[in-house]
């Protein structure tokens, strides 16, 4: 038997929570049994200390999947130590984020970096987001077998969007307090934004639509393209969050594509090559050039992108990329 640790989060309208729930859903389809950690700080701690060890002692073989990161570093340290010491199963991580790359790359949190790397090295196998992240893991001495997911799957309850008229509009979904570049967006781009923490001083061509759950959001986005961009600038993706796109698989990318919506993505993003090869969007160095790029795309070219996105969405809705990576990884354990 194989298992997945199910960490119950109290948050709801976030891509991170949606990604973890979807991963568990798709693994349950593959026969993985969920080990459910309860909601609540004290309930979690009591469960991990007093109940989880007895569950693990009964597991003599197979795989236990932990979604990385889970909880605090102290909690994850305790959980993974118990898995390695008490069970006979292999410890496999599905990586969602690496904080060293996301927040600490330009800081001196050496102690936290050491803890994170030690935890990563504890795994018997790893599902990495993409080849760029895997390259970084190898450079840090992670020796366990690694398989690349390439892109997040997305359990999308809404139907893939039917072909829309190409109107050169842009949609952006996400946590809006992280996207400071919106204040500098060129006036010739019409952009519609979705998500929490909106600000009050956007330019006139930036229109706020609303904040919707990850399951409802695909039904609301009507624009020609979904935007994948981060940081403070429009000339490039800057700062820690912009740089993180070089390693990360943005969950908004999967939301767009699983809905049949082509994308505009930073050309240096780790997932840019995937978008290019799948012919589901535009790669861009600088948002100042976006309107020129949009005007060069014909109606027929746009239809091809939409068709490709719909075809790709069929795989993503079935968990194809995670399931394939995990099947390939287990063969190596």
Describe this structure in words.
The chain is α/β, with parallel strands linked by helices and 333 residues long. It folds into 2 domains: 164 residues, Glycogen Phosphorylase B (Rossmann fold, 3-Layer(aba) Sandwich), CATH 3.40.50; 147 residues, 3-Layer(aba) Sandwich (Rossmann fold). The protein is built from 13 helices and 12 strands. A 6-stranded parallel sheet has the order 2-1-3-4-5-6. Strands 9-8-7-10-11-12 form a 6-stranded parallel sheet, covered by helices on one side. Helix 2 runs parallel beside helix 3 and helix 3 packs parallel to helix 5.
List keywords for this structure.
16% strand; 333 residues; globular; alpha/beta; six-stranded parallel sheet; transferase; Rossmann fold; Beta-1,6-galactofuranosyltransferase; 13 helices
CATH class category label of the largest domain: Alpha Beta
Strand percent estimate: 15-25%
Number of helices: 13
Span between N and C termini?
14 Å
In N-to-C order, the SSE pattern is EHEHEHEHHEHEEEEHEHHEHEHHH
Range of helix content? 25-40%
Q: Give the overall form.
A: globular
Return the CATH architecture of the largest domain: 3-Layer(aba) Sandwich
Mean pLDDT: 94
Total domain modules: 2
Biggest sheet: strands, sense, closure?
6 strands, parallel
Strand tally: 12
Short account of what is shown:
Helices cover 40% and strands 16% of the residues. With 333 residues, the chain is an alpha/beta fold.
What are the SSEs and their pairings?
Blueprint: E1 3-7, H1 15-29, E2 33-37, H2 41-57, E3 63-68, H3 73-86, E4 90-95, H4 99-102, H5 110-122, E5 125-128, H6 131-139, E6 146-148, E7 170-173, E8 191-194, E9 206-210, H7 217-220, E10 225-228, H8 239-244, H9 251-258, E11 263-266, H10 272-278, E12 281-284, H11 290-296, H12 299-316, H13 320-330
Parallel strand pairs: 1-2, 1-3, 3-4, 4-5, 5-6, 7-8, 7-10, 8-9, 10-11, 11-12
Helix pairs in contact: 2-3, 3-5
